[in-house]
Amino acid sequence: MSKTKCLAMILAGGQGSRLGALTKNIAKPAVPFGGKYRIIDFPLSNCANSGIDKVGVLTQYRPLELHTYLGTGNAWDLDKSTGGVFILPPYARDKGADWYKGTADAIYQNLNFIDMMDPEYVLILSGDHIYTMDYSKMLDVHRANKADATIGVFEVPWDEAPRFGIMNTDSVDGRIIEFEEKPAKPKSNLASMGIYIFNREFLSRYLMADAADENSSHDFGKNIIPAMLNDNARLYSYAFEGYWKDVGTIESLWQANMDLLADEPPFSFNSSWTIYSSNPSLPPHYIGNEARVHNSMLNEGSMIFGEVDHSVLFSGVKIGKGAKVTNSVIMPFTKIEENAVIDHAIVAQNCVISAGAVVTGEAGAIAVVPEGEVVEATDEGEQVS
Amino acid sequence: MSNMMGIIKLDGANSMLKELCEHRPVASLPIAGRYRVIDFAVSNMVNSGIGNVGVLLSANARSIFDHLRSGKDWDLARHRGGLSYLPSDPYDGKPATGDLQGLYSNLDYIQHNAAEYILIAQADCVYNMDFRSVLLFHQNTGADITMVYSKAQDDISGNAAVMKVTDNGRVTDIAKSLTVTAGTNDFLGVYLMSKDTFVKVVSDGFERGGTDFLLDGIIRHMEEYSIFGYEHKGYVSRINSTMAYFNANKDFLNPEIWSEVFMGDNLIHTKTKDAAPVQYKDTSRVVNCLVANGCEIRGEVENSIIFRDVKIGEGVKIKDCIIMERCVIEDNAMLRNVICDKNVTVSKDQWLKGADNYPLIVAKNTTI
Fold this sequence. Notes:
- The structure holds two protein chains of two kinds.
- Chain A is of the alpha/beta class.
- Chain A has helices at about 40-50, 65-70, 105-110, 110-115, 135-145, 200-210, 220-230, 250-260; strands spanning about 5-10, 30-35, 35-40, 55-60, 85-90, 90-95, 95, 120-125, 130, 150-155, 165-170, 175-180, 190-200, 235-240, 245, 285, 290-295, 295-300, 305, 305-310, 310-315, 320, 325, 330, 335, 340-345, 345, 350-355, 360, 365-370, 375.
- In chain B, strand 2 (about 30) and strand 3 form a beta hairpin.
- Chain B has helices at about 40-45, 60-70, 100-105, 105-110, 130-140, 195-205, 215-220, 240-250, 255-260, and strands spanning about 5-10, 30, 35, 50-55, 80-85, 115-120, 125, 145-150, 155-165, 170-180, 185-195, 225-230, 235-240, 280, 285, 290, 295, 300, 305, 310, 315-320, 320-325, 330, 335, 340, 345, 350-355, 360.
- In chain B, strands 1, 4, 5, 6, 8, 9, 10, 11 and 12 form a nine-stranded mixed beta sheet that branches. In chain B, strands 14-17-20-23-26 form a five-stranded parallel beta sheet, with no helix packed on it. In chain B, strands 15-18-21-24-27 form a five-stranded parallel beta sheet, with no helix packed on it.
């Protein structure tokens, strides 16, 4: 059996509590995005397209829908006899069980899996970001620099830098000199993307040392990277150019969906860098005689009899006659009945917005209807925000 | 464990589908925006619990291999059973001139199968049907052969077989025809019989010089079997002419038919293509259409079926058309009553018009 070059580990265990009602029953990486996808489709498809065919997915919070969705990895061409997708939840041992206590702890608890895969490099990814990236290029740079670790970085506007983990680098070769977590006065505007490539032995050493430290919060950004820097390890940055969005809040999730509706979208779904997903077998959607659809993205299995403008509609959505949907995201199998009004909203899966009901939010305060809800019309119109 | 096995017959040349089926069997014809005609037969079989599906091949079968592949998309990539491809080899040096020879030369495959019953379906029917009801009917009536038909809604031109069926379901006559009048019993190409009966029908027919399963296997031996007719009351369309193809697509612009066939408990499966959701731009104006994923719409489209990955430019006016995969309709082009086969480009400002009762067909890969 040939030695695996690079093993990917996707951290998909988080709740994403800032997504509120949308993650009440499902983990954040399972949240629908872009009319057809789920957030995890992006790192998974990036792995498949980058030639990485061994991917561990670390789950913890409410993983049922995510596990069911991933299946054997077939949809991403990751259903292989040696390799593919491996779902890694926390597990019990002879001396009890431990939940994952932090990003580094999650990887530490799976060192046995990493040993089994026996890779040269370990690529750590989060399951929360929307972007397309060829990880093999980052690996090439890592090897060219003879780095111990390479950290993906992304240029953010200077006034936003205090929100991120900032890497101060040598401008010539990209070597990381300093790492500052959410600095009040940032010395650089290169933010850590939470994408790391480590040499496998090097990573194992630091994870084991960190596990023994009771005072550590077992987090890559807070503990592991600073420890490596402290030892003057060869840490290099890899600058990513392109669209990258953290969709951890209702606002950013809504905005990222709206970004797809620009006349020139930030990345093309129709390029050769396919974003794979697992979807039910539904027919092309039907647009009725009185329907008006503009500036929107629509998926399969939907029936549109009303007005849809500047919105993202998922599969199996029904928009009744006279209904108006604007600036909104309507997730799978939701019914918007006749004359209902939806604006600046995210309506989750399997909801019913009854005839004449009104769900309106505004920029900065997007209305959210959680999974499975039925919203009735009231005399003055139901306001939900 | 299912006690039915399935055989799908790809049919031979059909003169009334000349332009669309010159280089492909009807079974491969793209339909309803994202399917191929064979998807209905395969999906119905799998949804009916049939785990062994043999596809009897005909000429130009490459598109069928490319589409069905291992059968994985229909859950037919199995360790036990699953999808089989049945070539129709020459017999005694002579190539087949009908479907009977192909069935005869594959009798060993059929006999090897443990199923008690065999369901044979022609690959040119568009419908959603659970064949278990046909099996129940077959068992209840004690028939030797059950044939599935529907009552024709309108007059239909094209290859057909009409059946006379008594009130208690007994088939008293079957005749080939080139037209079907409204109200007559139109045979849908679906047969159910025990495997033993099937072997007898095929052997008796072929060994006595027959070439056609229906004609030489069944019609000529009608006296020997009790044949019953099962009426399919749901939507069905047989693709046996260009107009039948055009109308079948248009039928799916009716939300009730669309829902019945595609949105019930049994889904129609097809090869996954990972195309992105449809982008409707600001200048688009779409009414009464079916639009498949991957499309980018900037123009006006009415009463049409738009397949995958089609680009429709600004100022375009499309009405009563079928536009297949990867076509590009450039700015200000106008199309009316046109069927564009795959990968056609209609350049800026070009106008194409077919007749109301006969669409203009643009061949694959053409640039106008």
